[in-house]
Write a structure and sequence with these properties.
The strands form four sheets. This protein has a three-stranded mixed β-sheet with strand order 3-4-8. It has a three-stranded antiparallel β-sheet with strand order 5-7-6. Strands 9-11-10 form a three-stranded antiparallel β-sheet. The longest helix is centred in the N-terminal third of the chain and has 33 residues, at 126-158. Among the domains are: 2-185, Up-down Bundle (5 helical Cullin repeat like); 208-286; 545-631, Ribosomal Protein S5, domain 2 (2-Layer Sandwich); 641-722, Winged helix-like DNA-binding domain superfamily/Winged helix DNA-binding domain (Arc Repressor Mutant, subunit A, Orthogonal Bundle), CATH 1.10.10.10. The chain has 28 helices and eleven strands. The chain is mainly alpha-helical. Helix 17 packs antiparallel against helix 18 (404-415) and helix 26 (640-670) packs across helix 28 (694-706).
Length: 724
């Protein structure tokens, strides 16, 4: 047996030292005949069967140990310029020899060594044994020297230089394959290549980036360039599993270390419209992940600041003009919306930042906060409603049929950021009514398009009154056509509108004794209407009615057409038969409160149609005006504070009704509920209409308890129960 062991030891050295390998049985092998191969295989078989496996295994271990130590000795004598090539030659030869030896000792692997493992003696296979010795006797000993060469070569690539990277690639591949049989197949690679490379790169980049801190533009461009280079290096030379590890590491080393500097200068590039550099920053921060929230927050703050700075530039003469105000807001919106779409790929984080910023801008910007003329309860809602009214009027000269849709879309864009949509609704309701009644709408299509936008944002309930108003106008046109078709011809052009009670913001504030000529027309229309609409009552809204009449002063030859309110028409008709009258005599004829008559007489006097002498009023027979068509139905000035207070009371009353309905709806579904969850649920459900005040919610709860819609649970004041 000893002779056989000696022969096997010799052939091991021969195989590893033979530099002339050839293919043998599908493997690259030393120049050994098949007969010799079979003889050695038989020897190994005999030794293992004769219980000489332990001695044979020791001989293999000693031989491989000596062979690898000899390789290391030769490598240690190599110069820096030759060591990589020499290592590659040794490694390639060693791999081929290991594969052949493993094949030669196949019986030992499959039987003896496997049986030893079963008996808890942890023998490695011959292949594992060879790789283990190569790792411990060569890789471990020479790695520090090798990785200095590798990392210096990578540093040259980062600096734009090139060189021979074949040996480097082979060495890294060696560390990846040397542990392929073990549980952690990449432990050598991770320990000797991957982790040291991260440490080295951190030191390398810190040294260079710290020198660029005074020039952020150079810093971010360098970082972006290095991120791409590192990605290329990783793909070409490192294991695929390193992609994620290196991405995370270099994101932290190159971006995370300098994130504060990068984010601080992001806004500077946005201000300067430097899309190249803020695009770079966006791409870099996006890689970091955690920093994206900070950059979107920074953008949100800048959007608010930018818009407020623009609004500050509005002159005092124009500060109360809704069109100037709105144009500044929408211009800011489009500017940043375009940046987000074009340069940030419509990133949802930036879209949310834009939405958050404009929620603040629309509801709490500097003009609203500092302007006492804006209703405090409505803030931005009233201003936007007023601008909408301007756009949708015939008098709108800034838009035509081609551009009105763009203006409507802009209003819809800003509308969705209004918190108190119920306040907008209140003002829009009044403005829409005025446009429809006085035929001052830009077009019916424009009105309908605007209503559709509101419906898309807030649902059908929000626009139901608006839609009914449009329908009323169309029905009224048909009714008027039918009425005129059966009526006698008249010199008076009589155009009544029939409005659905409850859908319009109008109510009768006074009634007038109309002149006989007008009374006849109204009576005829009532008769016509009642004939086709039973159980309905018509109430004339004289306070919002208007008309035109011919005014012919005795002292001049010119006829004037006066656009007047119904009460003004009634007053002027009184002077057909009388030369002078006082307030009481006018009141006796038209039956309206003296205060209202006095306000209208003041307008007639101011327009010089009337003259006042003591308590009497007389027609100005010498009235003269360059215009033949004179508008005298000007609005009577109302105390703005009182009007705002009245509007606020209306809004509060509407809100209480909505909150009551919401609470009842919730309690009917849940049956019983604690106080705070109920309050939270009410706020959540109504948030799309307005932000309910908690005090108002509490007051509504108490009111519903008093009205027995719900009750407190016994022994618990903070829990409520629905009362069926």
């Amino acid at each position: 047996m000893d002779g056989q062991l000696s022969k096997i030891e010799t052939i091991i050295y021969t195989i590893f030292n033979d530099q002339t390998k050839q293919m043998c049985g599908g493997h690259v092998a030393p120049q050994i005949t098949m007969k010799e191969y079979n003889e050695y295989y038989t020897m190994i078989f005999t030794i293992c069967r004769s219980k000489g496996g332990n001695k044979l295994y020791d001989i293999i271990m000693n031989s491989i140990d000596n062979i690898t130590k000899n390789i290391y000795k030769n490598l240690s004598l190599a110069t820096e310029s030759t060591i990589m090539n020499i290592f590659c030659k040794y490694w390639n030869d060693y791999q081929l020899s290991t594969k052949f030896i493993n094949c030669l000792f196949n019986y030992m692997n499959e039987n003896y060594i496997k049986n030893m493992k079963i008996t808890s003696i942890n023998y490695m296979s011959i292949y594992q044994l060879c790789m283990s010795f190569f790792k411990n006797n060569i890789i471990v000993q020479i790695n520090d020297r090798i990785i200095d060469i590798i990392f210096n070569s990578f540093d040259k690539i980062k600096s734009g230089e090139s060189g021979d990277m074949i040996g480097i690639y082979e060495y890294i591949k060696c560390t990846q394959s040397i542990d392929t049989i073990q549980l952690d197949s990449l432990s050598t690679y991770r320990t000797f290549i991957e982790t040291p490379y991260i440490v080295h790169s951190k030191q390398y980049y810190n040294r260079i980036c710290n020198q660029l801190l005074t020039d952020t533009t150079s810093l971010i461009q360098y970082i972006a360039k290095m991120i791409n280079i590192e990605s290329d290096i990783t793909i070409k030379y490192f294991h695929s599993s390193s992609n994620g590890i290196f991405n995370l590491a270099f994101n932290n080393i190159l971006i995370g270390t300098y994130v504060d500097t990068i984010i601080n200068d992001f806004i500077k590039y946005v201000i300067n419209d430097d899309s190249l550099n803020y695009n770079i920053i966006y791409t870099l921060i996006n890689r970091l992940g955690s920093g994206s929230d900070r950059i979107s927050t920074a953008l949100e703050k800048y959007i608010i600041t930018s818009c407020n700075n623009n609004l500050k530039q509005i002159s005092e003469e124009e500060i109360n003009k809704p069109n100037v105000y709105f144009k500044n807001i929408i211009a800011t919106y489009h500017y940043f919306d375009n940046i987000i779409k074009k340069n940030f790929n419509s990133d949802m984080r930036f879209i949310k930042s834009l939405a958050s910023a404009f929620t603040n801008i629309v509801n709490e910007n500097i003009i609203i906060s500092n302007n006492p003329k804006i209703a405090p309860s409505g803030k931005g809602a009233e201003f936007i409603a007023k601008y909408t009214d301007i756009v949708l009027k015939k008098s709108n000269t800034e838009h035509d049929n081609d551009t009105i849709d763009t203006a409507i879309n802009d209003i819809a864009t800003v509308f969705k950021y209004i918190k108190d949509k119920d306040i907008f609704q209140k003002f829009y309701h009044k403005f829409l009514a005025s446009r429809l009644i006085y035929n001052s709408s830009f077009s019916e299509d424009a009105e309908k398009s605007m209503i559709v936008c509101f419906k898309n944002e807030c649902g059908t309930e929000f626009i139901i009154k608006f839609q009914r108003m449009i329908d009323d106008m169309n029905v009224s046109k048909n009714l008027l056509g039918q009425f005129k078709a059966i009526s006698e011809s008249s010199k008076i052009n009589f155009n009544p509108y029939v409005l659905t009670s409850g859908s319009w913001p109008f109510k009768q504030t006074f009634n007038i004794n109309l002149p006989d000529v007008l009374n006849k027309l109204t009576d005829n229309f009532i008769t016509f209407y009642n004939a086709t609409h039973q159980n309905r009552k018509l109430t004339w809204l004289h306070n919002i009615s208007k008309g035109e009449l011919v005014f012919k002063p005795k002292g001049v030859n010119t006829k004037y057409i006066l656009s007047a309110s119904t009460i003004q028409i009634a007053i002027l008709y009184c002077f057909n038969d009388m030369t002078n009258m006082n307030l009481q005599s006018i009141k006796d004829i038209i039956g309206v409160d003296e205060t209202i008559i006095k306000a209208n007489m003041d307008i007639l006097v101011k327009s010089k149609i009337m003259k006042q002498k003591d308590d009497d009023y007389i027609i100005n027979d010498k009235y003269n005006n360059k215009k033949t068509h004179v508008k005298i139905d000007v609005a009577i000035k109302i105390d703005n504070d009182k009007e705002q207070e009245s509007t606020k009371r209306e809004i509060d009353a509407d809100r209480k009704f909505i909150i009551d309905a919401c609470i009842v709806r919730i309690m009917k579904t849940r049956k019983d509920m604690d106080h705070m969850p109920l309050v939270d649920e009410v706020i959540t459900q109504l948030n799309n209409k307005f932000k309910p005040d908690i005090k108002m919610i509490k007051a509504c709860i108490e009111s519903l308890i008093d009205r027995e819609y719900m009750k407190r649970v016994q022994d618990s004041r903070n829990k409520y129960q629905y009362v069926a």
